[in-house]
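Next comes a concrete protein, fold included:
___
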Amino acid sequence: MTEFRIKSHPILDTTENAVIPFFWKSEQLFARPNEMISSALMANGISIFSHHPIDKSAQGIFCANGQCAQCLVIADDIPVKSCMTPVRAGMRVEPAEGLPTLPQVVTETAYVEPVIPVTEPEVLIIGAGPAGLSAAIELGKLGINCLLIDDKNHLGGKLVLQTHRFFGSTEAVFAGSRGTEIAKKLEATVRALPSVEIWTSAIAVGVFADHKVGVFRDDKQYELVKPKVLLVATGAREKSLTFSGNTLPGVYGAGAFQTLVNRDLVKPCENLFVIGGGNVGLIAAYHAIQAGIHVAGLVEAAPKCGGYKVHMDKLVRSGVPIYTSHTVLEALGDEHVKQVVIAQVDEHFQAIKGTEQLYDCDTVLIAVGLDPVDEFYKKAKELGFNVHAAGDAESIAEASAAIFSGKIAGVNIARDLGYDTDADTEEWQKLEDILSSRPGDVVKPLEAFPLEGMYPIMHCTQEIPCNPCSTVCPKKLIQVDDVDIRHLPHYERATDEQCINCARCVAVCPGLAVSIVDFRQQDGTALVSLPYEQDPEKIKIGDLIEVTGTEGMPIGKFPIKQIRKIAGYRDGTLVVTVQAPAELATEMSGFRIIESSEPKPFELESDLLENLADSAYICRCERVTVGQIRQLIREGVRDINQIKAVSKASMGACGGKTCLNLIKRLFHSEGVSLEEVTETAIRPVFVEVPMSVLANLSGVKEETHD
């Protein structure tokens, strides 16, 4: 069977082989060590894991983070979420087809009075992402007994999925380093603190009235933790989107896509289409290009992309068409995505008839925002815990802001417990506010660039928090405001020092937005050094490479004169120097990497628009459509509990994690204020736990396979 794995990547090590044997429908396949079942199946070309018992629709990956139940399979006779279950040697995996068969009564099973271990740390932190790790570091430095738990088998949260360099402050939040590197730095620091205990593969399943937290460990043991203080740093889950075909295999959340590509080195598709122009969508699209995946296009419903412009610029320079004021109407395909229909929207975000276009693609990536995973925090607050929140569980922001959110929470908790600390949390809060601020207006550069000498050009034209270029310049020629790092960088010409073309600024820039121009050739040409983060095997000295401007406009093809790695930045960023006419040099900012896709004309019958919208699924688990919920709202239903009772929406295996917010948004779109809506109760257990574990059953015969 063909393997769908990434064999070459500019940043990540792709040398680990798949050597763990397992079986899918009796066929032997191979997985990498510690690989989740879902990723192993995708790597072997299997994207359909089962068919839904209600309508026989194909089921596959959607979130890859345990938040939905679309990837359910039967592993060694047990139904499991394949994205959260690692492959074991010899494991037998089957589709979860049809309705489950109840097990036979096993007479050897006996109930034994449970003896559940109880751990009593001073602080329990749920979530080992940037916020949780940073809080643990502050607590650990003070010697506070702290238990840090995470549902993954590694630390770092979403940082481990981020192969791009981070914005922010170099000194404060490792700006200029990749997310994968930042995760390792934070993990190394926290593991060196003796007062911090770490449990991985430990799922918090609920908080209870006796001020204990239930934790399911290592897929086999249930324990209780009773902390003096609870910190919830559980991050965020992705918002979903309703459009016709939205549950087809091949429709993923951005986090699922990044998990497959950047964590598990699986190549899940050949031709990607992206919905959402925030940072998450823009970054995920660029990660796809790095992995050798063609990006057919990106749509954003708003008049402009909400993410950093430098992230957008990386895409348009690479050849990706971006459509603002557009949305997706329909994903087409029988059991897998094959095409997507997009259309322009008006000022009310309604599709405009006659603007439909059809794109070929085999995957649609949804990146339309995040919701905080705050059930634990809200329930703990209700039950009177001494509870704090940090990171996205408190407020959605960039990972760099989450680091400071965690630091502040850690210090506040220490003070709650009576520990002395001289940490200046007021100054930290100011920096967190800067790091979490929205991008500023786009400012056209006023500087006239002389066609002489040698110097860097900063192609960033939008104020965002970022200063790596100024911190790495050995001559201190690039300046960024020390107090507010959102101000644009500028090059100091009025100095005796001169640029030496060390190219550190080119290599470190998270936006790939710095070039160095050298006009000293005296022959009407200039040498232009630009960052390159694609497959290094695709280029060599002497090749003609297509160069583009900041806005993606083609400038021409020019010969590569030099390819170099920069000392201290040997982690995937190359500096490629081309020779071009001097008058074009200052406009050059990137390379066109992919062939642009051409849309096909597509005309939708006028009466189908609303029908398309109503046919979308709002509850994946119970296959409840938008039209069904809309009809209940129009009939006057204002209680989500009543919607549940009538339609079963949110009563499936995911527990409403993907559909409840969609139902609230549907109320809003129907002109109903959420103040009129009665919400449903969210009760523990928040995450699934085998009944045999909770009931402490022993003596169950385990079936073995040769």
